[in-house]
Design brief:
Length: about 70
Amino acid sequence: MVFFPTVSSHVPTQGYPDVPEQWQTLADQQRNSGLSAAKLCKQVGVGYACFCNWRKRLSSYPAVAPTLASASY
């Protein structure tokens, strides 16, 4: 049996996110909140170094959704 984790639309308030999409949501929340990364990590219960590693890893991925300007008609 193969287990595929479900992608949740929210980030848990305590503990570590399970999938990259949840880490991306957490990084977006941090950027939009005005909180420092350290403060947000403390609030949600994740390690600062782990958060920074994921944020760096995710920033190296190209955008998944194409923009309207790049769509061909």
